[in-house]
Amino acid sequence: MSTRRKFLHSAALGSFGTLLTKRLAAATPQVAVTGRPVVISTWDTGLAANKGAWEVLSRNGTALDAVEAGVRITESEINCCVGLGANPDRDGHVTLDASIMDHQWNCGSVAFLERIKHPISVARRVMEKTPHVMLVGEGAQQFAIAEGFPLEPAGLSEDAKKAYKEWLKKSEYKPVINIENTKSGKEGHGPHNDLGASGPWAPQRLPNGDWNHDTIGMVAMDAAGNLSGSCTTSGMGFKMRGRLGDSPIIGAGLFVDNEVGAVTATGQGEDVIRICGSHSVVEYMRQGLSPENACKAAVEKIARIKKEKAKEIQVAFIAINKKGEVGAYALQKGFSYAIKNNSEEKMVEVKSFLP
Ligand code: ASP
User: H-type helices in the chain, by residue range?
Assistant: First the structure.
């Protein structure tokens, strides 16, 4: 950048620009060469989901089957931030979004789907059995029923009912900053740090009744070296009816380019969509950045766009490149992801842009 351009750039960013420049200078890539197969997924819920994916990968199954099987485990949790037990929208309905993508640019997604337990599997059917990429709302539900998915009873889980009742008192929509809970008492440390991969991993409700996060995103490389990814969510709790986040949008919440890498996102979906987040991370990897630095570049872009408002949101990306190296980066601290390969099964605490 020329000196004049540099000046204009930092003048426009103000104090946030100074922080950004310092952080760029301090970049220390933390590349884990993992070998294959390997699976990574967002948040502590990723530990259990990775086990499901690993059952497929360790039997020489495909990454596509693995990422579907893995996140179905999270979708099955009765009281969780993902799936039918999750918090409703502000009209009291749980609406689910999911997307899946394989190593050949095949992709499928569903959004605003109600009363179907496994949106990820419906997304896969959209990919495999329709000429489309995305089905939403009533049409997605009709398609799911036609494909043999049971229509589950309407209504909320007991916990979601309580949370919704509480929320109705103020009826204020304010997205939360997603961080993993701090049971261990150490700021930014989830229970996994004390208890290891076998410890409890349940997501926690925040004082306002919302979950600390609402999504699981998973990307995997199979023994043949092919990549796939999945992402499934109930979206932000108490959102406007009809709101979609990044998770069902290919290129935003999920993107796979088998020549380069696979990426998924979590956090404030609106801001991930703004920059086509997961696609951007893949493109940064194509330019030669490590998975961690590619995720970091996308987070920094969001921070630049949001300026002071970056403090109010969380956004994080996880990525695998074609060599089987993995990495992640978050806007706020408190984000972690789960990794499983032949030699390790653990949570990794992720570096963040903001202190
Ligand atoms: N990205 C999701 C959404 O905006 C939420 C999350 O990751 O927790 O719907």
Answer: 3-25, 46-57, 63-76, 119-129, 137-146, 158-170, 192-195, 269-274, 277-286, 291-306
Pocket probe for ligand 1: among 181, 236, 314, the residue whose CB has the most ligand atoms within 8 Å is: 236
Residue range of the domain that includes 311: 29-349
Give the C-alpha separation, 247 to 315, whole Å: 12
Distance CA 275, CA 270 (A): 9
For 28, counting Cβ atoms within 10 Å of its Cβ (0-12 exposed, 13-18 middle, 19+ buried), the class is exposed
| Residue 59 lies inside a defined structural domain of this protein | yes
Domain membership of residue 15 (yes or no) is no
CA dist 264 and 312 (Å) reads 21
Coil, strand or helix: which one is 183? Answer: coil
Q: Tokens at residue 125, please?
A: 């059917």
Asked whether the beta carbons of 68 and 120 are under 8 A apart, the reply is: yes
Query: Which pTM value belongs to this model?
Result: 0.85
Q: What are phi and psi of 100, to 5 degrees?
A: -145, 145
Which CATH number do you get for residue 62?
3.60.20.30
**Of these residues, 215, 232, 264, 266, which one is catalytic?**
215
Q: How many independent structural domains does the chain possess?
A: 1
Burial class (CB in 10 A: 0-12, 13-18, 19+), 159: middle
Give per-residue pLDDT as tens, 290-341.
999 999 999 999 999 999 999 999 999 999 999 999 999 999 988 999 999 9
Residue 56, domain member (yes or no): yes
Q: Is 215 a catalytic residue?
A: yes
The phi, psi pair for 107, rounded to 5°, reads -150, 155
Q: What is the DSSP string of 114-151?
A: -S-S-HHHHHHHHHHHSS-SEEEHHHHHHHHHHTT---
Residue 13 lies in a domain: no
The Å distance, Cα 268 to ligand 1 centre, comes to: 6
Tell me: the pLDDT tens digits for 101-152? 999 999 999 999 999 999 999 999 999 999 999 999 999 999 999 999 999 9
